[in-house]
Write a structure and sequence with these properties.
binds pyridoxal-5'-phosphate
């Protein structure tokens, strides 16, 4: 149990504040995609909306209108036919993924009782798909990515059968930043569907890319609802949607996909409400913050932010490539640099001590093994809107200096 007697608010505040001092600084979290900075006007709107529960739709009519407007606007951004589209604000892409899968599964169940449904994805897909599929009793057929360059199209198609709900295609995978070739996948699946009279669709996981590719020239220009087999798309508002952690979006092509079985109407408080998400209560503040961003940045503002992020990612990538200590891995399609220590085997540098040393300079850098069949431990630096040129230059210096320091220490140690 917690403390029997309370303390004053001031004391509690000081104590909590002191404890939180041990946390890393989110600005220095290099591996994270989530937003750490919004204009002060957004902060004020968020603070003012903290008391509002998104589910109380009749009480907060304006907020409900904002929510519905955003679903429509995001649908249009993703070229949903006739600008209809159904969807909802969620806590993040994971809840969005869960809802998308739930919708697909319940739709399929209507005409398919006995069989276990499956989804097909590549090993670069996010963990949330395994989680959602496990929760919902859907089989996951995972195709290993052989290397970071090629999408294993043939093997993906081989895994598809009449019980496949959809293939999950990632637009900007978390660990490498790659985009699955959705356009080609759509074409191949159309052929497969036609041949076997199947109805296999595609779900696009655009957690990262959803707010990037509408605003920039993309390597794969066609990846959204313009392709006929795309059934649903998820996006993280708190990544390049530029809102603080706590908001995602799921958008469906049509109401059949947004299956009626998971929209619950209920008579509640001031009238009939509809709930289509996992959670009932959810803070309205981030929906409001997303609306603020759309108004404030506009399409051109988002374009500018994304352009700047790519420019900085290129700068960083070139600096890392020019250094004798690092090697850039793969060619990320999003503003991120994945790299590894070149000298790790020859000189005994390892990622763990490298990252620990960087941490002493406040930078938090994750290292992990790639999802492809490559035995490589890599690190990633995500360029977010908050990364300034000054900090970026300092970062490139620190990366280099930490290597030099570790190598010098090692040489001294070896000499003893
Ligand atoms: C971040 C991410 C998710 C999970 O999204 P949350 O918003 O963190 O719940 C899913 N898929 C991809 C590709 C991601 O990068």
């Amino acid at each position: 149990m917690f403390n029997q007697k309370g303390i004053s608010a001031v004391k509690a505040f000081d104590q909590v504040k002191k404890l939180l001092g041990k946390d890393g600084d989110p600005y220095f979290d290099l591996g994270s995609y989530t937003t750490v900075e919004m204009p002060k006007e957004a902060d004020e709107l968020i603070k003012g909306a903290l008391k509002k529960n998104l589910i109380n739709k009749n009480e907060f009519e304006a907020t409900t209108l904002i929510h519905d407007y955003l679903v429509k606007a995001i649908g249009e951004m993703l070229h949903v036919p006739e600008g209809i589209g159904y969807g909802a604000a969620t806590v993040g892409s994971s809840e969005a993924a869960f809802l998308a899968l739930l919708g697909a599964r319940s739709k399929k169940k209507a005409f398919q009782k006995r069989d276990v449904a499956n989804i097909v994805l590549c090993s670069n897909a996010h963990m949330c798909w395994h989680k959602a599929a496990d929760f919902l009793g859907v089989e996951v057929r995972e195709v290993r990515l052989e290397n970071v360059e090629a999408y294993p199209m043939e093997e993906v198609l081989r895994q598809v059968d009449e019980h496949t709900l959809w293939v999950v295609a990632t637009q900007g995978c978390t660990n490498l930043g790659l985009c699955d070739p959705v356009y080609l996948l759509n074409r191949s699946l159309e052929q497969l569907n036609e041949k076997h009279h199947w109805d296999v669709g595609i779900h696009v996981d655009a957690a990262i890319g959803g707010f990037i590719f509408p605003f920039t020239e993309s390597v794969h220009p066609l990846w959204d609802f313009r392709l006929p087999l795309i059934r649903s798309i998820n996006l993280s508002g708190h990544k390049y949607g530029l809102v603080y952690p706590g908001i995602g979006w799921v958008i469906f092509r049509d109401k059949r996909c947004f299956d009626e079985s998971f929209i619950r109407s209920y008579d509640y408080l001031l009238g009939i409400s509809e709930s289509s998400t996992v959670n009932f209560s959810q803070n309205a503040c981030f929906v409001i913050a997303q609306y603020f961003n759309f108004l404030h940045h506009g399409v051109e503002g988002y374009q500018k932010v994304i352009r700047e992020c790519f420019k900085k990612a290129r700068f960083l990538s070139e600096a890392i490539n020019a250094s004798p200590y690092f090697d850039v891995v793969g060619k990320s399609d999003i503003p991120m640099v994945v790299f590894r220590l070149m000298t790790s085997s020859d000189l005994g540098l390892n990622e763990k001590s490298f990252c620990e040393e960087l941490r002493k300079r406040s930078w938090m850098l994750p290292h992990y093994v790639l999802p492809a069949k490559i035995d490589k431990r890599v690190m990633r630096i995500v360029i977010r809107k908050d990364m300034t040129w000054d900090r970026l230059r300092k970062l490139t210096e620190d990366l280099e200096q930490v290597c030099i320091k570790l190598l010098t220490e090692k040489t001294c140690f070896d000499d003893q």
